[in-house]
Amino acid sequence: MDKLSINPCNLCPRECNVRREEGQMGYCRSDDRIFIARAALHMWEEPCISGEKGSGTVFFSGCNLRCVYCQNYEIAAGGRGKAVSVERLAQIFLTLQEQGAANINLVTPDHYVPGVAQAVLKAKKQGLVLPVVYNCSGYAKREVIKSLAGIVDIFLTDFKYMDPALAAKYSAALDYPAVAKEALEEMVYITYKDGDENLPLFDETGMMQRGVIVRHLLLPGHKQNAKDVIRYVYETYGDSVYISLMNQYTPFDRLRDRPEYGELGRKVTKREYESVVDYAIDLGITNAYIQEGDTARESFIPPFDVRKE
Q: pTM for the complete prediction?
């Protein structure tokens, strides 16, 4: 972590260089404190992550990407959450373990990496034995991912765009495709570097213990972007990486007054999603998760009420 700093902050590709320890906030809208919006068992992740027990999710407030269509907008904008110390966060991890969580799931932790990593290590010293899931947007520096070796067991990462123009329009991140490629390469490297041919690793109940899952949320009208992402991931990593194709995009009222985003004002159609799934099948992908039925509903978006069960 020596080269990574929050004062001035250079943790993410935006490199705002604000002095967070002095109360300044960069693009992620976070200072030097760790804010969480919710910590509870969560049933809506992929089957190998949530299972029947639920994933021990900790949703962190703020985000360094802040997509215009964000499904967790109320916390990504940095306006919700409660500050916790590293010590308290470690205790939250242990409490989730006591509640029977299948894993500890860190949701959007990129801008808190130094403190979150410390909390995981403290929890492990105090008895945490669950796999740790790093659940992120994919917009992360290679060196940040590299620093998580030995701390994170599973990377559950988005790969949102192969089209830089879309990345710029929806996430103000023209460099997203290049950054996401490097981040994913490092995720795969540190996860598989021991040369174990049995990876990804699952336990006897089908729960992932070590590995990489790449998520892609299909956006309305953007099948080609989805197909380009799928093709890149599969041609680069083959069956060593699981792919999760998501159709749960939810249009929100906040975009109705933004005509430049008019295409985002509807759900993904069944035909659009089936086209993308068929494309994945035709490529030969077998290690994939797909969603059936109308999944764009509120159940996928938990209440961010600072709940800590």
A: 0.93
